[in-house]
Amino acid sequence: MAEKAPTNAPEWSVSDLAGALKRTLEDAFGHVRLRGEISGFRGPHSSGHVYFCLKDESARIDAVIWKGTYGRLRFKPQEGIEVIATGRITTFPGKSAYQIVVESLEPAGIGALMQILEERRRKLAAEGLFAESRKRPLPFLPRVVGVVTSPTGAVIRDILHRLEDRFPRHVLVWPVRVQGETSAEEVAAAIQGFNALAPDGAIPRPDVIIVARGGGSIEDLWGFNEEIVVRAAAESGIPLVSAVGHETDWTLIDHAADYRAPTPTGAAEKVVPVRIELMGDVRDLGRRHLEAMLRSLEYRRRDLRAQTDRLPQPEGLFALKQQRLDLLSAKLAPALMRHAGRFSDRLHKAVERLAVHSPSARLAAMRARLIGIGGTRSTEAAHRLLRNRAERLEHLGRSLTVARNNLVRSHRVHLERQAERVSRISERLEPAVLRHIALRRAGLDTMAQLFDSLNYRAVLSRGYTLIWDANGRPVRSAKGAADGEVLAIEFADGKLDATVGRLTRSRPAARQRLVEEQGALF
Questions:
Q1: Phi and psi at residue 348, to the nearest 5°
Q2: Which helix (DSSP H) or strand (DSSP E) does residue 367 occupy?
Q3: Each residue of 289-303: pLDDT tens digit?
Q4: In the chain, at which end, N or C, are there fewer CB atoms within 10 A of the end residue's CB?
C-alpha cells in the first residue's frame, strides 16, 4: 500500500464537527418561516412533545414542537394540512440530521382552512351536534334577552336599537372578544355562564341567547368554528340564536344553534315580535271573542227560552196527585163505615143464633119432655141430664160470650189501627207534596237567575253599551258606521243619540306616547 502524503489539515472529532455544524446552521438560519405540508403527524408523544415532517414536492425536513409551545398554539397541526411554521433551524447530532423547532403555526391559506373546517364539520355532525331534532323553538316573548358580543362594536347598538323599535326587553350583555386567540374560550364561557344563572337569582336568567358578531374574513370568524364554542352552543339549556357575520358567512356555531340569523339585526327581529302588530292582533282577538260570546249568549238565550216553554206549570204537576188524594180521602170514611157495618151484622147474626140455642131455651124444652115422660127415676135422670146439659150449655155460653167479646175487640183494634195508618199517611203526604213544590220552585229560581246572568241588560249594567243604527240593528264594527250617521247608544239606564265622526292622530305623537308608557330600555 502506498503511504499517504503528509497534510496540515486539523482533525475533527465527531462531536466537535456536529457542534460546529449546529452553530453554523443556527447562526445562518436563526429564525425562519417555512411553508410545507404536514406529514407523519401522530399526535403528541408521551413526553408531550410533537414530532412530524414538513414536505413539498421535492424535499422534506423534520419538525418538532416542544410541550410548552404546543399547549399555547391556537392552531393545532393535522396530517396533510399545508401550514406556515415559524421557528429555528437546528441539528440533532444523534442522527446527523437537521430539523426546525417550531414556535408558531398557522394555516397556509383559505384552502387549508376550508379543509380543516370541512373535516371538523363532518366530525361534529357525526356526533349529532347539528341534528335538527335537537333544535328547540324560540320563546314567543322572552322576558330577558342575553347577548354575547363585543360591548364596543356596532353590533350591540344595532341589536339594542332593533329591540327598542320592535318590543323593548330587558337585555343582559356578556362582553367577550369576538376575534383573536382567546375569543373562542370567552364565547364558550359566556354561553355556559348564562346557563349557570339561577332562574330566580339576583341576576335574571335569559330566556334566549344571541351570539353576535359583524362580518369579516374566515380568519376573523375562525373563533366561532372552534369545537369549544360549537359544543357550548349545542349543550346550552337556553335557546340560542347565532348571528355571526353577514348573510353569506357561515360558521359551525350556525349549525349547532337553535336558529341562525343572517345578521345581528335579524337576530333581534327573530327573538321579539312587533309590539304594535301584537296589540292589533290582541284587539282583533278581543273583538272576535266578544262577538263569539254574544253569539253564544244568544244561542243560550234561545235554548233557555225553548226549555222554559217546554217546562210544565207547578199546578199541572200536582193537580192529578191532589185530585187523587181528595178522592181517596172522600172514599176512606164511607169504606170504614161499611167495613164496621159488615162486622156489626155478623155480630147480630151470631147473637141471634146464640139466643135460639141458649141454655134456658133448651132447658125448658127438656123439662117439658120429662114431664111428658113422667116417673121418678126418669125425672131424676132427666134432672141429672138436664143439669149436665145445662152446665155444658152454660160453659158453652160463657165460651161463646168470651169469643164474641174477643172477636169484637180484635175488629175494633183492627179498625183503630187502620184509622191510625190512614192518619199517618195523610200527615206524611202533605209535607212530601210541599217539599216537591219547594224543589221545583228552587229549580225555577235557579233558571231565572241564569236567565238574568245571560241577559244582555246585565252586561249593560256593568258599564258596557250597545250601539244601534237608525234601522234598529246593532252596529258590530267601526267600519259599519258612516260619517255623520246618527246612532243610538243604549246604556243600562236609557238611550242617547250620537253622530259618527272619525278621529285622527299623528303617528309621531302616538309613537312618543308609546315610548313614554314603555320606559327606557335600561
A1: -65, -40
A2: helix 359-373
A3: 999 999 999 999 888
A4: N
